[in-house]
Design goal:
The protein has about 400 residues and is mainly α. It has a single domain, classed as MFS general substrate transporter like domains (Growth Hormone, Chain: A, Up-down Bundle). It is about 80% helix and about 0% strand. It is globular. It starts with 7 loop residues before the first helix and ends in a 14-residue tail after the last helix. The C terminus is likely disordered.
Length: about 400
């Protein structure tokens, strides 16, 4: 990766997303255990707490994406970051169960920062380089996950579980300030005017239903996100029950944080040094197929091992698979509609991912209650199912472009 060749704005977005994910991932390894130990919530209630965020994001995603098409990326980006800061502050200070849920739901409703950051990247990147640029965005995710979970586990062990939430609120506030002072608006007056035209701005369910390439991309994204949602909802509980069974509470917190940090490190390396070369040689659709297989290998490792040392390999394969699968999927989604709808399309993409996470996190606790390994075996089976549409998409794209005729374009 040559930083000299990168647009300054991509580097700025990279830094913004890194700080955002660093703050958010501080709380990732401790939120389920925090809810279990201090609020006496069951595994089912804990996974519903996690899924409530994604349920709210599912509702708000397309709306926030379209707002950014109409009114600009920066106002929505800053608003979402301020909402995140308020919600983490509530999580760190509240003693009420209902306030826990309120904070997660409100964060989901205002959480358009990732959608808008992706739209910003596609605004300033040519089509042929979008997957690579979106990969840099995921590298920022990975780098945040290298330090965030481990730091969250260490801070929780040293100062108690509330401190990471307070620090995450501060990080989100810093992101909003960084955005205000460093980024320029990318949505021009002409783009805003076009996006506000009824034929351009109306979300047409019929158009979506007839856009086969986009439907395939969304189906693959749904199943791909299911495995990530299961991991988000149950990994801390799974680590405590299986990988770190018999370890102390402090060692468990630190160990879970470090395993999540391995995911982040692998994600970072994949996006900066691996994905670009693979895309140049094989293309987006091949990477989607390969990513599904590699990610499935990571889930199988999680499902069968009992040692935290072997769990490291599960983290590596899972992150590698997600890393070479998701940026190409996002890039393919933007190719299925006209450019004035980039924010809206990415909003739909994010909503589908959120819908998948709603289901996976909501039933993750139920599956975990059956057996701690069942959530991961379920994700493996779904990965096998989605291989067929991924292969079909690869075969189709070899002969025709993904973008449909104007009558079928999602708008």
């Amino acid at each position: 990766m040559n930083f000299k060749e990168l647009d300054r704005r991509i580097i700025t977005i990279f830094l913004i997303v890194f700080v955002q994910i660093l703050g958010a991932s501080l709380a990732l390894p401790i939120l389920p255990l925090y809810a279990q130990r201090y609020f006496d919530l069951s595994p089912q209630a804990i996974t519903l707490l996690v899924s409530s965020f994604f349920a709210a994001q599912f509702v708000a995603g397309p709306f926030l994406g379209r707002l950014s098409d109409r009114h600009g990326r920066l106002p929505i980006l800053i608003l979402s970051q301020l909402g995140t800061a308020v919600c983490f502050l509530i999580l760190g200070l509240t003693n009420s169960v209902w306030m826990l849920y309120f904070a997660r739901i409100f964060d989901g409703l205002t959480g358009g920062n990732v959608i808008v950051a992706q739209a910003y990247i596609t605004d300033i990147t040519p089509r042929e380089k979008r997957a690579q640029s979106l990969g840099y965005l995921m590298a920022a995710f990975g780098l945040g996950f290298i330090f965030g979970p481990a730091l969250g586990g260490l801070l929780s062990a040293a100062f108690g579980p509330r401190v990471p939430f307070i620090l995450a609120a501060v990080a989100a506030l810093l992101v909003a300030i960084l955005t205000w002072f460093t980024l320029d608006e990318t949505v021009t007056p002409e783009m805003r005017a076009k996006a506000q035209q009824p034929q351009q701005s109306a979300f047409n369910i019929r158009s979506l239903a007839t856009n086969v390439p986009l439907l395939l991309v969304l189906l693959i994204a749904f199943v791909g996100q299911f495995g990530l949602g299961v991991l988000q909802a149950t990994f801390a509980l799974y680590g405590g029950a299986v990988l770190f069974s018999g370890y102390s509470e402090e060692a468990t917190n630190i160990g879970i944080g470090l395993l999540l940090a391995v995911i982040g490190l692998t994600q970072f390396i994949t996006q900066l040094f691996i994905l670009r070369r693979l895309l140049a040689r094989y293309g987006e659709t091949v990477m989607v197929v390969v990513g599904i297989v590699v990610r499935m290998m990571g889930l199988i490792i999680y499902a069968v091992v009992s040692s935290p040392y072997l769990g490291v390999f599960g983290s590596i394969f899972f992150a590698l698979g997600m890393g070479i699968m998701m940026p190409p999927l996002q890039a393919l989604a933007t190719e299925t509609a006209n450019d004035s709808n980039r924010g809206g399309i990415l909003g739909v993409f994010q909503s589908v991912a959120s819908l998948s996470t709603i289901f996976s996190t909501a039933i993750g606790g139920v599956l975990f209650a059956i057996n701690p390994r069942v959530p991961y075996w379920t994700a493996v089976m779904l990965s096998l199912v989605v291989l067929m549409p991924a292969i079909y998409l690869w075969r189709q794209r070899r002969h025709v472009p993904l973008q449909p005729k104007p009558a079928s374009t999602v708008s």
